[in-house]
Structures are given as C-alpha cells and as structure tokens.
C-alpha cells in the first residue's frame, strides 16, 4: 500500500528522487515513461517531468479514445485486458514501464507485450514494491526489472 507515501509530501518527493536517480544512472536515453492503470499514473507523470520526457497511459480496456492496441492476460481470478493508444509511441522509442507493485506479473507482462506490438524498446519495468514470494519478476524474462522494496 503506497497510501502513506502519497500522504507525505517529503516521502513522495524522496520516492521520486530515488526513482529519478536510478533511471538517470541506468539509461542515458529514455523517450517515455509508461504508467499502468491506475497507480502507475501517480508515479509516472512526476518522474517523467523530472526527466524531461513524456508520459504514456496503459489503461484497462475501453478507457482510451481513438485507435488502440489491446492484450488480454490472466489474473488470479480470471482475465483482464489492457490497452494503449496505437500512436502512443513510435517504433524504436525507449520506454520504462512504472507501477506501484509487482505481484504475479500478469499486468506488467501484458504492458510489455503492448509496447512490443508498437515496436518500442522496453528498457525496464520499474515498481516501488515487489512481492518476491509470488515470483512475478520471473515472468518478465528478458526485460530488466527494478524494485525499490522487496517483501518475501
């Protein structure tokens, strides 16, 4: 739960500082931050602003206007779909995907698939909290993954 971070402006600023420092040290060029619906929308825009780059939405099906790419993925309790606007990124652009939490990895894998369909280069999947016991990062395979906090 990231609610305490969001309530405390100094803690939230520190969070964005840490993520910014990590990305600046890891990648010389990033074109976009892509945020996952919905908590990635809280982290991604201030991070993108700090880096001087754009922010792209990856949303639940039916929420984005215009032509979209869609992917279905498995949840613990069924299936869901994510979408991205078809013109959100150009082929070859470098993208970092952000969210608050990585659990089983289904949503993050679906986001990677959407960006690959648009021929973007996913540089990294970045989260605040990783629940290691659920082994979601193993599903990401060849995509680099980074989390600030890990819990077993």
TrEMBL record:
GO terms for cellular component: cytoplasm. GO terms for molecular function: adenine binding; adenine phosphoribosyltransferase activity; AMP binding. Its main location: cytoplasm. It catalyses: AMP + diphosphate = 5-phospho-alpha-D-ribose 1-diphosphate + adenine. Pathway: Purine metabolism; AMP biosynthesis via salvage pathway; AMP from adenine: step 1/1. Gene3D superfamilies: 3.40.50.2020. It is found in: Cytoplasm. Residues 5-130 form the Phosphoribosyltransferase domain. It is an enzyme of class 2 (transferase). Its EC number is 2.4.2.7. One of its GO terms (biological process) is AMP salvage. Keywords: Acetylation, Cytoplasm, Glycosyltransferase, Phosphoprotein, Purine salvage, Transferase. SUPFAM superfamilies: PRTase-like (SSF53271). Belongs to the purine/pyrimidine phosphoribosyltransferase family. NCBIfam families: apt (TIGR01090), PRK02304.1-3 (NF002634), PRK02304.1-5 (NF002636). Catalyzes a salvage reaction resulting in the formation of AMP, that is energically less costly than de novo synthesis. Homodimer. This is Adenine phosphoribosyltransferase. The lineage of its organism: Eukaryota, Metazoa, Chordata, Craniata, Vertebrata.
């Amino acid at each position: 739960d990231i609610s305490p971070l969001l309530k405390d402006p100094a803690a939230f600023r520190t969070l964005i500082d840490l993520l910014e420092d990590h990305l600046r040290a890891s990648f010389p060029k990033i074109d976009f931050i892509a945020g996952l619906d919905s908590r990635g929308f809280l982290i991604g825009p201030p991070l993108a602003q700090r880096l001087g780059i754009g922010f792209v939405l990856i949303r639940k099906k039916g929420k984005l206007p215009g032509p979209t790419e869609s992917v279905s993925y498995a949840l613990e309790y069924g299936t869901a779909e994510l979408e991205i606007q078809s013109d959100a990124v150009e082929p070859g652009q470098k993208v970092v995907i952000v969210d608050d939490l990585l659990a089983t990895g289904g949503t993050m894998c679906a986001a990677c698939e959407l960006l690959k369909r648009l021929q973007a280069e996913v540089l990294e999947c970045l989260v605040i909290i990783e629940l290691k016991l659920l082994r979601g990062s193993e599903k990401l395979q060849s995509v680099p993954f980074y989390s600030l906090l890990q819990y077993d």
